[in-house]
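Page 42, continued from yesterday. The earlier attempt failed because a stray header line got pasted into the input along with the sequence. Redoing it now with the clean sequence only.
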Amino acid sequence: MSESAHAARKPIAMQYMPGDAPPLSVVIGNAFQYIAVVSSFLIYPLIMAREGHLTDTEADNMQAWGMLVLALGTTLQALPRGPIGSGYLAPSVMTAIFLGPSLEAVRIGGLALLSGMTIFGGIVQVMLSRGLNRMRALLPPELAGVVVFLVGMSNGVVGLRYLLQPTGGAPAAGHWIVAGLTLAVMAGTNVWSKGVIGLSCGLIGTAVGYIIAIPLGVLPWESLVQLADLPLVSAPGTSHFGWSFSPALMLPFVIAALANGLKGAALLTASQRMLDDDWKRPDMRPISRGVLADGLTVIAAGICSVFAVNVSASSVGLTAATGVASRRVAYATSAIFVLMAFLPMFTRFLVLAPDSVVGATLLFSSCTILKSGMEAIAARLYDTRKTLVVGLSIMGGVAVEAFPAAFNEMPGWIHPLTVSALVFGTAIGFLLNLCFRIGQRQRTLIVLDPEMPDLEALARFIEGRGAGWGAMRDVVKKAEWAAQELAGTVVHYCNPRGPMELSVSFDEFNLNMQLQYTGDMLPMVDRRPSPDEIADHEDGPRRLAAYLLRRVATSISSRMRGGKAVVDLRFEH
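This time it went through. Structure tokens are written below.
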């Protein structure tokens, strides 16, 4: 799919497209695979229940409502028509992005404050869905990468606290054995297994942790026996429901909502790309509708007093692995979640998870999040300004985790900024990004002598400007090659008279180049010239160069203006 709304060309590896109707066995089988992938992330509402000191019954209800919210989010995302939903198979999952702010909300005002602030975060994400493109200038990808990195770091720290400071006191040998084997199984199945087993590594590791914890006494047998006293089927209760609001937590939840929306947009873009062999650039209409569906589901999570959700990255990977992208799988997945919500023994079993299993799961999942953040950061070129933005943002986040007492002693007005590494690091990066834009030219010019053109200097000029703007490496490399090819072609085949002026500009969406010179105009061609055309025609070499430039640039145009030839190239960013 693209901005031109062309019909998607089915990839060879994709067996069933979103609108296809697979056999019922395929639908049900794939639905259970998604359940397996998503279920391990139900650890997050469990953490909230424990931090909020909920009773077992209240925790059961919270988990059950969480499954209903996941069913709602998965269905909304799959809707093919209307203002809501991307139309893709992209099940919802409890998101790690909201963990830091949510823990702070529970600490300050219990589950009621978490619920109210989650509703607020969902509203922010709904507003974001209406203006995704405009956010790119205010929150560039390298800063978005920092946000994701800080999410991973914060989650890892929470996991370490569960491992090093369990609720039962000093960790015993059994605690460490369960944690170590849980983490080892997760890592082993992720590294050495493929397909569904590899994608379900979190769930498999959690199951092994439960099994080992019983004979070691980490999970008392008496707790499991009590499961028999629960009814087989029962509607989830509402005793844990409650809502409150705190202006002091607005900033943390705004930042989490922005990160959640941007992550959802990135995953939906990945879904869009794998469904079209002719994909060139994102079609923002279904992506925007998908982020809207995600935001509405976050609001629903707050209303139901459970944890915030997002599109599941593992589920997108599972779709690519199985080749099944039918929306019917999404509807079947939602139906199974609804069924599970009415099984009290299942929800209570989740509530019994030992601290060692919770800590190992968080530690494992944080590694993937850290990797995603590092990849986003490394995709850009950097000058001193960008280096300081990224470096100081990360160090600010580390400082909050390493020296919490020092931040607690600061004036009260700054406390909303220091509630978590995510909030403080993002705030530093956002402010530095705005500050360092002052005095930074968005359009620069280099003059080339056609008698002695220094093409190496031209490449260094493009690279330096790209680093100053924080442009993506692959886009800058394309621009470097195109600039050298264009300048060389004009020098050798367009009879330039006088200096040639190459200007470069950047607006976060496009990197633009314009070459002005006095001489022959570069012809525009739509097809590759034949060898005879290149050899026999006077403008053959120019036609070949124009064709090669068209293949590299997003768009190219050539015209005469005021007696000068002007060539414009645009590279989508």
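Notes: Confidence is low (pLDDT under 50) at residues 1-5.
Reminder to self: strip header lines before submitting.
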